[in-house]
Design a protein that fits this description.
The chain has one domain: P-loop containing nucleotide triphosphate hydrolases (Rossmann fold, 3-Layer(aba) Sandwich). It contains nine helices and ten strands. It has a six-stranded mixed β-sheet. Strand 1 and strand 2 form a beta hairpin. Helix 5 packs across helix 6 and helix 6 runs parallel beside helix 7. The chain is globular and about 50 Å long.
Length: 252
Amino acid sequence: MNRFKTKFSQILNNMAKTNEVLRLDKVSKIYGMGGEKVIALNNVDVTIFRNEYTSIMGPSGSGKTTLLDVLSTMSKPTSGNVFIEGVNTTKMTNSELASFRGNTIGFVFQTFHLFPRLTALENVMTPMWINGVPRIEREARAKTLLEKVGLKDRMEHKPGELSGGQKQRVAIARALAMNPPLIVADEPTGNLDTKSGEIVMDIIKKLHKDEKRTIILVTHDKNVGKQAEKHIYIKDGKIIKNEKIETNKKTK
């Protein structure tokens, strides 16, 4: 256990020495289904630089969910390498990946993934509790984050007492708990009404613009995806377009 902690500390100390937050190098993901092989990702190359706001778009079955799972280290590629902050995550064990992921990636899910028996405050504190942050520190940070997303008066409410938009704002606060270099949002407006979706997207945009957060947003909604500054389109497991939109063009 001590050897693992030492190794993980060395990995963290080597982070942030590159402007690349994420790089997928010739990544493929192949599933076996009914005796046949299904190529979900086909020799994909992706690079995300620090402070970029990137959307990944594509039709149903295009491979965007698999791409999300692989780039967030939730699933290992069949071939190729996934680098986060210059660290080759494909060489890690599952236990090393879990700890590394908890410190480097903040997740925002379509279905929120909140603990129903915990309050909003306790949900935001959970990642910090897992990572050994002292209670006084984690409670203070959780309160600050909930205030940031406009939920100062909902801290003691449980998920069942919150609207969908409020749940997603709790999820965003939780994603920021460990101050990770990368935020990954999977269909963050998928379960929300139009007004709640706009509020959530405004928060995400402010995180990028005001706090210089690196954000990857996966969506099937072109109106949501086009709000990012960089667009990656995937079809049949291949990247068919990777373009960065100039800020002045977006604001016209």
